[in-house]
Structure prediction request, 582 residues.
Amino acid sequence: MYKGHLPLAIGPVMQEKILSEPTKQRNNRKIAWILAGIAIAWYLISMFTIWK
Amino acid sequence: MSTTTVAHHDEHEEHPTGIMRWLTTTNHKDIGTMYLTFSLVMFLVGGCMILGIRAELFKPGLQLMNPEFFNQLIGVHALIMIFAALMPAATGFANWMLPLQLGAPDMALPRLNNWGFWILPPSAILLTLPFTLALFGIGDGALATGWTFYPPLSVQGGLGVDFAIFAVHLLGISSVLGSINIIVTIFNMRAPGMTLMKMPLFAWGWLITAFLLIATIPVLAGAVTMLLTDRHFGTHFFDAAGGGDPIMFQHLFWFFGHPEVYILLLPVWGFIPQILQTFSRKPMYGYKAQVYSLWSIGALSVVVWAHHFFTAGMPVPALLYFMYSTMAISLPLAVLFYCWIRTMWKGSMSFETPMLFTVGWIILFGVGGLTGLVLADVAADAQYHNSYFVVAHFHYTLFAGGIMGIMAGVYYWLPKMTGHMYNEKLGKLHFWLTAISFNVTFIPQFFVGLAGMPRRIPDYALQFAEFNMISTVGAFVLGLSQLLLVYNIISCVKGGQKATDKVWDGALGLEWTLPSPPPYHSFTEQPVVK
Prediction:
């Protein structure tokens, strides 16, 4: 399962955890995307609030 | 305190070797090591820059460089020390220690982790490249605006400003990616039984830091993007001649800039109590009080930004609000100081190098905090603003409070990371040389600042000569003494006395249950916190 020599391969223990807890992994990505969305939105808001 | 059960196997040590290991790694310890190494290199680069500045200031008059180059060194020194030395050091510790402390096999998003790190070196090159380009007649050197990018100077500045703007964007992206990873790891990857209020304080410090980064970095990015459009695309956001407002830039910049101070300090405030409890051999005092204080400081840090430009002019109610809110930060901070001292109180203390750095840190950071109160006073700030008093204050906060704290962490965790004990005598010598020369460097700057010497000026009046001379001598001793740290780290990585699993007698936490150094893939079986 562990493709240790491929670029950006994830370690076997972590890989096992990801495969055994798919819901948790989906949640991890969901939280990450929400936080990234907040950061991008905040970036745009900080510019457009003072647009003249 | 919680007890733990941990199992570990030695299999799964397989990983790529050579340069590919470092380029493609998703392993939290590898990435942590890269962050820490990058931080150390940039700390030395930024340190060399400031030694050039201090050499110029050794005596009045222009000796070694023209004022433009002097200003460039100052701005890039600050950007490097903040974005490329201190922040990556804290992120390096987060990568190394958070999964170990939380009982996770890795960071939640390992590929994102790799990306977050590899954005950093190009941005460091962008920051420093204009110096090299200027040698070949391209551009006029790096940004000469100070790290604050204030317009109109930054709108009128040369090529170096553009390079710095792009560098800040990249550094910001890296920080936000790192923050996302840390938040997800802390929320979703803790070992069974490790509730939020059982987490090590370092995790709390980083959780708040990560939220602060997500709240403030986009605003900085927005401000410098607008600066870029002002420079090249005909907008006038910050150009008064076109109806823009340069003070608005200061508001946006410091909305990021002030929390940034706490972004640099909160991770340190997280692991300092852990070091204190280890070397006092008793549990830390007031864990909950410290958690709530960290949150209070994090929350207050985003509503006090305008104290950095009281003298730019603002309505009296605004002055009063920003003065009192700034001073209010001292209340939760006082709670932290109380907890740190009470942790040591009647403890069975010993003073190995990490503890020496920690105790020295408390005293010197205390000076930084108290002088901050002076600057928070609107009436007093009119006198001290833009003087060397401010320079001395923020170096007590960021060198003593930040870098010396990081050094405490380096000595504390180095045996765990490398599997070897560092040279204790050299470590103690490093501490004493650092602490003494730091004070020799910066105490004179309080005096010349109080007497009216402005910052960011390569020449000064004759009456400041003696204090500047002392400060320069101190700075060179401080700079050279850091070579002891470099030597100690390198020799510790290469070999030395074998470190035990639980390196320090009084150490508590999951990271000390693993071998030293921990196996490549830590926690092959899920630890359980009871």
